[in-house]
Structures are given as C-alpha cells and as structure tokens.
Amino acid sequence: MVARELLRELEARGVRLAVDGGQLTARAPAGAITPDLAAQIKAQKAELLQELQRAPAGLLAPLPEPLARLIGAAICDHLNRPLLLPAGIVPNLGEYVLACAAQYAAGVEPERQLEALWTARRAWAS
C-alpha cells in the first residue's frame, strides 16, 4: 500500500496523522490501529511524513465515510432525538452532529470535533 492509500485507510478508521516538529504523530480511537497497520506506518514513515507535509497548511482532510453518512442523516433530520453521550445528554443528536461538523469545517479544534463526531457515531450505531 502506498503512503496516500495508507493515509486514506487510516482516515477511514478515524486515525489522524500529523507532523509535529518533524515527527509523525497519531491520534486514534481505541483499537483503530491494528498491528498490521502499525507495521505499515512504521515501514512508510518517511513517505507519510512527505505526504503530510505536502498538504497545504490549514487544509483539513475530508471526513471519513462513516462520519459523512452520520452528517447526511443529520441533514435529513433522521437524528432528531435525544441521546446519552459520555459527556451527558444531547437533546437533539442531529443538531449536535451538525454543530460539530460545522466547527470541524471551520477549523475550530478539528481534533476535538472529530472525536465528538466519532463518539456520536458510535452512540447512534449502538
């Protein structure tokens, strides 16, 4: 798998790679990085660093497909219900999802917004 394909695979799993001080850093939901993926990341570290540094500053990655579907459901008003999240009760899941997506798109704490969207997705799916 080439670096760009590996990045897409990782994004689809909710894994965010970044370059911090020339070092590759990762944030991921628990269990998202399998031993095979970890080995691929290690083997392609130099290529991944190059690919990430090539992206224009401030450009956010497209949302993974599961989150895009979640946002689509919110837009179609299929999530208009309260839901209990780890942070507390959300009176309207659809409004919460759309607010998080809008903040992500605006670049407001994108890591935090992605984490909130993944949490909402897991709660919605269960």
Automatic annotation (TrEMBL):
TubC N-terminal docking domain mapped to chain residues: 5-53
Pfam families the record matches: TubC_N
UniProt xrefs under InterPro entries: TubC_N, TubC_N_sf
Taxonomic superkingdom: Bacteria
Protein name as annotated: TubC N-terminal docking domain-containing protein
Taxonomic source organism: Deinococcus marmoris
Phylogenetic lineage: Bacteria, Thermotogati, Deinococcota, Deinococci, Deinococcales
